[in-house]
Please model this.
Amino acid sequence: MSLVKFVQDEFVTRKDFPEFGAGDTITVYYEIKEGSKTRTQFFRGVVLQRKGAGSSETFTIRKMSGTIGVERIFPVNLPALQKVEVNKRGKVRRARIYYFRGLTGKKARIKEVRK
Model:
């Protein structure tokens, strides 16, 4: 076993987030420090990808702010992350839905998986 993997398993604290993948609509709550104050802000959007493994895993979320698309990359082990809520499960065929960036209007909808 490599030394890097050993350190990641032993010393990095894992947060328990629900299972989510590409196509899911999630809300991420994270802490922002402004001077001496801290506040919680949320970012709700569609997951474009999950990338990496272990402590270096990240996920990319895209939301529309007016007519402009905004993407944000969150590391899974970011200390400022408070919680992740899964709002909708999306049905997509790919693990990385970069094609979603080019879609507008009705084409930019993702079918929801009902349980």
Q: What stands out?
A: The chain has one helix and five strands. The first strand starts at residue 25 and ends at 34. Residues 89 and 114 are 8 Å apart (CA to CA).
